[in-house]
Specification:
- The complex is a heterodimer.
- Chain A is mainly alpha-helical.
- Chain A contains 40 helices and three strands.
- Chain A has a three-stranded antiparallel β-sheet with strand order 1-3-2.
- In chain A, strand 2 and strand 3 form a beta hairpin.
- Chain A is elongated and about 100 Å long.
- Chain B is mainly α.
- Among the domains of chain B are: 211 residues, no CATH class; 73 residues, Orthogonal Bundle (Arc Repressor Mutant, subunit A).
- Helices cover 68% and strands 3% of the residues of chain B.
- In chain B, strands 1-3-2 form a three-stranded antiparallel β-sheet.
- Classes of the chains: A mainly alpha, B mainly alpha.
- Chains A and B meet through helix 32, helix 34, helix 35, helix 36 and strand 1 of A and helix 18, helix 19, helix 22 and strand 2 of B.
- Chain B: This is PCI domain-containing protein.
- Chain B: One of its GO terms (biological process) is post-transcriptional tethering of RNA polymerase II gene DNA at nuclear periphery.
């Protein structure tokens, strides 16, 4: 393996295109098998089933892998290969994942295909114009296959991507984007790249010249923009759907060992950074990296070596090529995870150029370039690269199609290819399988119908619908989750998705998390069972919150997470009611109306389903809320007419109705009496109306009283003093409060000859005003102002 | 169902098809309308339904001749609807009828003149009635009633067709049908409790230049005013409600007593709110006795009577949506009570009549078996003065209402109580 490393140059761009090449190969293969009709739509062939399945396979493999590495502390290649073989069938040692501490391979594979596809328009005509394809029409399949093998590596990489953590994204982001921009970096890092540098300009130049061949000026100019740009674009576009990946990464066993020194991790990151958009390379790099670390461990220099100054190594392309093949299915499946954003870019070009003939000729063309030069010439390799990349979009799809229908058989085929020598054989088997499928009349029909869609330039949007039916009743959790992810993804993009067709029961999560405490995080993807608490744990969590001494912010957060877990598990019983009631009460206590309303509306649904709870109490709250805060006459009438005779006898409801009457008639005396005698938390809802009521009362009094009104009376009437006890002190504080309030609202106060403070009614009638609430905030809801909120709740 | 021979069934179906074809060919809107009115339970349609249930393959008859088959898309689902209706399967009857209606609307769109408006009216009516019945059936089966909502969106589409027909030809002949559809929509929205949906239709009726309100049939205008008046009652915008409901009342055909009663049901509370009391005769003529005691309470200043009257008919008032309006009459009752105290005091001692002691009011309320303490009464008095139902001021120190010497109890005279 080490020998291989030293042998190779750095055909980075070439690697980028390898997936393409491979796809082209497969495509070419079809044509040679007389399948000219095998249009891009076959592509659509996204295997809904196989995607989750393969992913899951990989996923399963990882935990074991990690556990083993943890035990041995040194990821031995042999050992690992054994592990992976047992799990996955037959993967080459070289294709093994990197040692755990390595940053998981960057996400490049996911966007690279898009890059290539984005270039599709520009490149294709070029290929067609070259007209070289005729020579290659009858090119034997084996010659393709050698090339085809190469791209399979990225496929494997894709599976690794699923484990990519967010940090890696970050890392990627900071890394130079685009191939060309990357070269200088590489150069600085390693001497080995010297050889690659000269090729860069030539490659570019040649590419451009090639691109100028096309007769279509529009496309040519398009191409002239260069790869770097398109890559950047695609990268940017890719950043949007990232959450999906992140969510995937959540599920992975997160026992990523951290025992390696930080400097080594940095080293590894640097090593991978170079290959961030080259799957094959990175896989090779991983393997190599593993060797280095194993070695370092063996001779005890793991912690002593200065990794920061350790030179980076080069990855030979041959190595990655040989490796690449094995994991091909994973890549296919992964492609469905590709962000859809780029599809838009694609749409037009694809529709413009989806004639089969063009594809065919183009494919051959790219291959010719590739095969002719591959042996020794890096530059030609590179040169052919971009071209090969272009048809990848269309060519890639047929493979996906096969996966759907041929699911397991294909994986087996791929797994058989445990060595380079097996490659041809397995490929043949692979394709013959595909052919058999293609011959199937049903299959043909499906392809036809899909090709029609493709003609419309829809990209793979419609295709997305294809995985839906297959998602129904997935066998296990992970496929289920994966399919849920896909669903959620496809919802975003295709509005015409038929929601009714989804088997929600199959998608319902059963939680396994045993943690009682959990922070609320708004889900951006399908929930992960390992982070969802089952019902019994939720009950404990609710109790914990109820008995907690912490502030509302904490409780709200906890309750929201409980609510989320309940919702995703579709629990609808007394626990649900209890949780919502608890939250509603807490929200009321601090005046968090928004949260309260959410709970109240849920509660009304739950009660109407016949689940028991504090129905009367919340009926009263509902009434109060409508009366005091929405002031919608129609709603009020409906709420009132829905009250049962028993409800009208309930104290809380009676109180609420009395409050309503007081508010509609403007009877402030009754209102503040009711305020003091409120049952349950009715006071809390009334609290929010107190200011308004006091102001109305003050206006009313200043207009109807002459000449003065004693402040003490106002304080008593408007609920300032706690009149419950006749304690003078309380009385006084209420009086002071009232004074402050009146002053704040512009009342004119005088002291009469007995020294008692009086409201000068006549003077006040023209000066009263509603002051801007001191805690007013721009968004209009002061309860959202964190500082204030904290002050009130702690 | 008496036994029906195959031949007789055949005859009845062909007869209907002939009538249908003739009605369209002669552009006879009235005849066509009659042929669509499923829920009218007319003998001819009922016998046709029986015939259809005997002669199962009506579609063959329709396809048989070119004369019928051109209306196949309308008639075939209509037959199915009629069959289902006859068999009591209202959900399917509605579904099929909506299908037939959709096909009819497509045809209607292409007809230049508005000859078929009568038929369209019947369809708009039938679709609502069938949807209501279908919903009742759904609800009784424990399913969620959703057909009326569907009928709402269908009628919105019809409204669009009628309004849209005008854009092309300036003032199209079909636009006059828009108000009828609007009224059916109102009925649906009020039934569903989604009255806020009325707003968009109202806006297009009142602002779109193609509509001249006076042009619409008087029948539709009355219905429209009735519903918009009710909306104003909900908003407690009494002057507007008064104006709309009064229009409906004055233009409503006198023979339609039920309609007049419905209008009065809302108009009376509105009039009471602006201080205009109805004659007892009116309430009795239109069987609106639930308002009797309320009017009486206003006349006598009898708070107890008002409260008991409200209590008695609470459910009814809540459902019709006038409860909150009637409840607000309480202030007027207080005003009346105070006025009576003032008049009595004036008879006793004119010089001190304008000073009413709070205690006196509390005592008067006690006689009415209403327990209120001084603070509460003081508050009521303050509100009365504030709302300009009473002129004067309240002296807190001496707990005395000092009334203005001129017109201490101003009449509302058609103006609402100040808010």
């Amino acid at each position: 393996m080490l020998g291989l490393h030293t042998s190779g140059g750095y055909p980075s761009s070439g690697y980028n295109n390898q997936p393409t090449a491979w796809n082209n190969g497969s495509y070419a293969n079809y044509t040679s098998y007389q399948y000219p009709n095998y249009t891009s739509d076959t592509s659509s062939a996204y295997s809904s089933v196989s995607a989750p399945a393969t992913y899951q396979q990989q996923y399963k493999q990882w935990p074991e892998y990690y556990s083993q590495t943890e035990v041995t502390c040194a990821p031995g290649t042999e050992h690992l290969s054994a592990a992976s073989n047992s799990n996955h069938g037959s993967s080459l040692p070289t294709s093994l994942p990197p040692p755990p501490p390595l940053p998981p391979p960057s996400l490049t594979p996911t966007w690279r295909p898009e890059t290539s596809s984005s270039e599709l328009p520009s490149m294709q005509p070029g290929g067609a114009a070259s007209g070289a394809h005729d020579n290659y029409w009858n090119q034997p399949a084996p010659s393709f296959q050698t090339h085809l093998a190469a791209p399979t590596q990225p496929i494997y990489q894709n599976s690794l991507d699923s484990k990519t953590s967010y940090e890696n994204f970050q890392e990627l982001k900071t890394a130079p984007q685009g191939l060309n921009s990357q070269y200088p970096v590489v150069h600085q890092v390693s001497q080995n790249y010297q050889s690659t540098l000269p090729t860069v300009p030539s490659f570019d130049a040649r590419r451009v010249s090639k691109l100028q061949i096309p007769t279509n000026p529009r496309i040519a100019s398009n191409a002239a923009l260069g790869i770097a740009k398109t890559e950047k674009d695609s990268y940017a576009a890719n950043s949007a759907p990232r959450p999906a990946y992140i969510s995937v990464s959540v599920q992975k066993p997160n026992d990523k060992p951290t025992m390696l020194p930080k400097s080594l991790r940095g080293y590894v990151e640097r090593a991978f950074g170079r290959y961030k958009d080259d799957d094959a390379k990175r896989a090779a790099c991983e393997a190599y990296m593993k060797d280095i670390i194993t070695e370092a461990r063996a001779d005890g220099t793991l912690y002593t070596r200065d990794w920061d100054s350790e030179p980076l190594f080069t990855v030979p392309d041959s190595l990655s090529i040989s490796k690449a093949y094995n994991k091909s299915p994973v890549r296919r499946s992964k492609s469905r995870w590709e962000p859809l954003a780029e599809e838009k870019m694609l749409e037009k070009p694809v529709s413009a150029s989806n004639e089969i003939g063009k594809y065919g000729s183009w494919d051959r063309k790219t291959f010719s370039g590739y095969s002719a030069t591959k042996d020794n010439s890096l530059s030609s390799f590179r040169f052919s690269g971009p071209q090969q990349r272009t048809p990848s979009k269309s060519a890639q799809r047929p493979m996906k199609r096969q996966r759907i229908v041929n699911g397991t058989g294909l994986t087996n085929n791929d797994d058989d290819a445990s060595s380079d020598s097996d490659k041809e054989q397995s490929l043949t088997a692979y394709y013959s399988g595909a052919m058999a499928l293609a011959n199937n009349p049903e299959e043909k029909k499906r392809r036809e119908s899909r090709s029609k869609r493709f003609d419309r330039g829809q990209g793979h949007r419609p295709d997305i619908n294809y995985f839906k039916p297959k998602n129904a009743g997935p066998a296990n959790l992970y496929t289920r989750r994966a399919s849920a992810l896909m669903l959620s993804k496809s919802f975003d993009d295709s509005a015409n998705q038929a929601v009714e067709d989804i088997d929600w029961d199959a998608l319902t999560v059963k939680g396994t998390c045993q943690e009682i405490e959990k922070r609320f995080l708004r889900l951006t993807s399908a929930p992960d069972p390992s982070t969802v608490r089952p019902e019994d744990v939720l009950e404990k969590a609710l109790l914990m919150v109820q008995n907690s001494q912490k502030n509302y912010l904490y409780k709200c957060d906890q309750l929201k997470s409980i609510r989320q877990d309940i919702t995703v598990q579709r629990i609808r019983n007394q626990l649900t009611v209890k949780v919502y009631e608890t939250h509603a009460r807490l929200a009321m206590e601090v005046g968090d109306l928004a949260e309260y309303n959410q709970c109240q509306s849920q509660l009304q649904i739950l009660y109407s389903e016949g689940i028991e709870g504090c129905l009367m109490e919340f009926a009263a709250y509902n009434l109060l809320c409508v009366i005091l805060h929405s002031n919608n006459k129609k709603d009020l009438l409906t709420s009132m007419s829905r009250l049962t005779p028993e409800a009208k006898e309930d104290d809380a409801v009676k109180h609420a109705l009395a409050v309503r009457a007081a508010v509609t008639s403007g009877n402030y005396v009754t209102f503040f009496r009711l305020y003091k005698s409120a049952p349950n938390l009715n006071t809390c809802l009334m609290d929010l109306y107190v200011e308004k009521m006091r102001y109305k009362a003050a206006v009313c009094m200043s207009k109807s009283y002459r000449p003065t009104v004693p402040i003490s009376y106002i304080a008593q009437i408007l609920g300032f003093s706690n009149a419950a006890d006749e304690n003078g002190e309380t009385e006084l504080s209420g009086l002071d409060e009232c004074l402050e309030w009146l002053k704040a609202h512009g009342a004119s106060l005088i002291t009469d000859n007995t020294g008692e403070m009086q409201l000068d009614a006549k003077a006040s009638s023209s000066t009263l005003y509603m002051p801007e609430p001191e805690d007013a905030v721009a968004h209009g809801d002061s309860s959202l102002a964190v500082n204030d909120f904290l002050a009130r709740t702690t | 169902m008496a036994y029906l021979s195959m031949g007789e069934s055949h005859r009845r179906i062909t007869d209907y098809l002939n009538r249908f074809a003739d009605a369209i060919n002669y552009q006879d809107g009235d005849s066509l309308a009659r042929l669509f009115s499923v829920s009218s339970d007319s003998p001819s349609l009922l016998s046709l339904a029986d015939a259809l249930n005997v002669f199962q393959d009506a579609n063959r008859l329709i396809k048989q001749s070119e004369k019928f088959s051109q209306f196949g898309e309308v008639v075939a689902p209509f037959f199915r609807s009629l069959q289902c209706y006859r068999l009591g399967n209202l959900v399917d009857a509605y579904g099929a009828f909506e299908k037939a209606s959709n096909a009819f609307i497509q045809e209607f769109r292409n007809w230049e003149s508005g000859w078929a408006l009568e038929a369209l009216y019947v369809i708009a009516y039938e679709i609502r009635v069938l949807a209501e019945r279908a919903d009742r059936e759904l609800a009784s089966n424990g399913k969620s009633p959703e057909k009326l909502k569907g009928a709402g969106s269908f009628l919105m589409k019809v409204f669009g067709v009628l309004a849209g027909s005008c854009d092309l030809q300036g003032k199209g002949p079909k636009r006059v049908g828009a108000l009828y559809v609007t009224c059916q929509l109102f009925k649906i929205y009020f039934k569903l409790g989604t009255v806020n949906l009325c707003r968009s239709v109202i806006r297009s009726i009142e602002t779109a230049r193609i509509f001249d309100f006076e042009e619409f049939p008087i029948r539709d205008k009355v219905t429209y005013m009735y519903y918009t008046g009710r909306l104003e009652v909900l908003n407690e915008n009494f002057p507007a409600a008064d104006q709309k409901l009064s229009y409906a009342l004055t233009h409503c055909c006198l023979s339609k007593e039920a309609n007049i009663r419905m209008i009065l049901k809302y108009l009376i509370p509105v009039k009471l709110s602006i201080g205009i009391l109805p004659k007892k005769q009116l309430l009795e003529n239109y069987d609106l006795v639930e308002y009797n005691n309320i009017v009486e309470a206003l006349k006598r200043g009898d708070l107890r009577l008002l409260r008991s009257a409200l209590q008695e008919n609470e459910d009814q008032f809540l459902r019709s949506g006038v409860y909150l309006v009637l409840e607000k009459l309480e202030l007027q009752v207080y005003q009346r009570l105070l006025k009576k105290i003032y008049i009595i005091q004036k008879q006793k001692d004119p010089s001190k009549a304008h000073q009413v002691k709070l205690e006196v009011i509390v005592k008067a309320l006690k006689w009415l078996e209403i327990e209120m303490d001084l603070d509460e009464v003081e508050c009521i008095v303050a509100i009365l003065i504030y709302k300009n139902l009473m002129k004067g001021y309240f002296a807190h120190k001496s707990k005395v209402v000092v009334l203005s010497k001129q017109d201490p109890f101003p009449k509302l005279n058609g103006k609402p109580v100040a808010s």
